[in-house]
Amino acid sequence: MNFQGSRRRGEDGIAVVIDFLLSNARLVLGVGGAAILGIATLAVKRLIERTGRAANDEKVEQKMADSWEELSLVSASPTLIRKGIEGVVMKHVSKAAKQQKADLCQQPEISSSDVQSKPETKSKKLPLCVLSLQERLQQFYHTRAALAPQEVQRAQSLALDICSEIQAFLHIRHPDMPLGEMSLGGSLLDDLQVVSADHACLLVPLQLEDSLWRLIPGEETLLTHPLHWMVRRINLEYFPRGRSYWDRYLVGGYLSAEAVVNMFSKAVMETINWPSISSTLDCLVRPVLGGPDLRLEIRPGNERGSPGSSDQPLFITMLPLLRECDVVLTAEPELTSPWVNAWHLSLYPWETQRLAQLDAADDGSRRHILKILKGVCRLNPALRPLQAAVLANLILHLSDSEGDWSETSLDVRFQQCITELIGYLEQGALHSYFKPAVNLLSGLSEDQVDQMGFMLYCAVTEPEILFI
Questions:
Q1: What's the CA angle centered on 64, arms 52 and 32, to 5 degrees?
Q2: 253 Rama class: left (phi>0) / alpha (psi -120 to 50) / beta
Q3: Which CATH number fits domain 350-466: 1.20.1260.10, 1.10.1410.40, 3.30.70.20, 3.90.660.20?
Q4: Which of 97, 283, 286, 347 could form a disulfide with 301 if both were Cys (CB 3.0 to 4.6 A apart)?
Q5: Share of the chain above pLDDT 70, in %
Q6: Where are the alpha helices (H) located in 106-176, listed in sequence order?
């Protein structure tokens, strides 16, 4: 390529190099190399913007020095440096930048008379309104992350109506089934749901006799998994099988979570007259069959067009659970498969309670940042595999080392969360705050990690790309 000529031709030459490198980055360098190249490209872009308005060599040198400092981000990843990618990127960027500097130095100086001869042109330019990161975060929170109160109230009302119908049906058809009071739970109740109120959780507590059942921690079971607990039937020599209602769902001496879910699927999902309930609630209610969970889909019926109504479906999940003190075990076969007897230890109540306690103690904005991160990940396809538990634990770990979580430091904490998350992805591990033996990133594939790493690396220098 020929980079000789005017300043405009120099800019075009750099553009050609950058376009060529970006279009072939993933093929030649891989996803990790493409991430580094993306950061370097953003730095060169800023270099061009800064040096393009310089009037003398001293300003050119100073502006270029400031811009090259931004390229220190390229060396932020030890893993990628070991792969030898940094040298490839810096070689192409350095060549393009040197030519840009040479072209700028060859420009003729602009006289003051030339500037004064075009007052109309200058007056026509309007100042650009550029939001700071702090303002952009607040804007994203209020327009995308936070939900309208009427939308939340409508979803909660529908979920509670369904809850009442299911509980009344079970009392009539299965009066001997020992169940506690069903209630609404999850992110919709805790004001942690983002983008849209499209899912809710109905908690169905099972009542067990203390003298007949024992909850065994996951570390003490044969599975040795800290989140996979088991519920053992005890005192069989004094109280034989049949004394407890739940004995009919025993598998190998343990209460089977899978058997309990199958029972509710037949007793509720496949038995209740959903068309009748749909008519009563003035909306379309139907079970989502074939999946591992107990899920209902609710769509607006005759209420279409009423205030606060929406065509967005609401999914309600029934969640059988066991409670003992502060321990909550849920029947979720999709999380404990292939072990039919295992129950899942839910850390969600502990994480939510801890975040609320920390914010109450210092008037912090941890939950505020969590909702922003959840909104960003939900709306960005590359970051969508990051679950809420990962983001909550990220903030909990960061809270141990950072004390300022006020609204004024929202932008600093947000950028720090992005940097910390990159480090956890490089290590391939983010340990649970309450169960360090649990790696919350173990379910991600290598390709998913690469895609998320690429997006987050670019967001270090240009966080606005996360809000597009």
A1: 105
A2: left
A3: 1.10.1410.40
A4: 283
A5: 70
A6: 112-116, 119-124, 133-140, 149-173
Where would I find the beta strands (DSSP E) of 238-359?
Answer: 250-251, 254-255, 283-288, 294-300, 314-324, 327-330, 343-345
**Can 147-302+311-345 and 350-466 be said to share one CATH topology?**
no
Q: Which amino acid is at 414?
A: F
Residue recorded with tokens 């004394």: 243
Nearest Cα neighbor of 253 from 270, 272, 237, 274 is: 237
Alpha-carbon distance 202 to 161, whole Å?
A: 11
Residue spans of the domains in the chain: they are 147-302+311-345, 350-466
pLDDT in tens, 399-444: 999 989 999 999 999 999 999 999 999 999 999 999 999 999 999 9
Cα separation, 33 vs 27, in Å, equals: 10
**Residues contacting residue 464 through CB under 8 Å, at least 6 positions apart:** 133, 136
Mean of pLDDT values over 10-31: 52
* pLDDT score at 45: 54
Residue 40 or 402, more confident: 402
Q: Which long-range contacts link 268-271 to residues 24+ away (Cβ below 8 Å)?
A: 268/166, 268/169, 268/170, 268/294, 268/318, 269/294, 269/296, 271/173
User: Does residue 179 carry a pLDDT above 80?
Assistant: yes
Mean pLDDT for 329-354 is 95
Nearest in space to 382 (alpha carbons), one of 447, 442, 440: 447
Q: What is the pLDDT of residue 235?
A: 93
Question: And the tokens for 308?
Answer: 């606060």
C-alpha 311/C-alpha 198 separation (Å) is: 10
> Both tokens of residue 366?
């941890």
Ranking 70-84, 117-131, 342-356 by mean pLDDT, the lowest is 70-84
Q: pTM value?
A: 0.74
Residue 71, CA atoms < 13 Å, CB-side half-sphere = 21
DSSP-derived 3-state class of residue 328:
strand
Q: Which residue has the higher pLDDT, 228 or 121?
A: 228
Give me the mean pLDDT over the 2-28 stretch.
48
Please give the Cα distance from 405 to 459 (Å, whole number): 21
- Closest alpha carbon to 394 in 427, 346, 361, 362: 427
CATH architecture entry for 147-302+311-345: 2-Layer Sandwich (3.30)
Amino acid 430: pLDDT: 97
Residue 113 reports pLDDT greater than 80: no
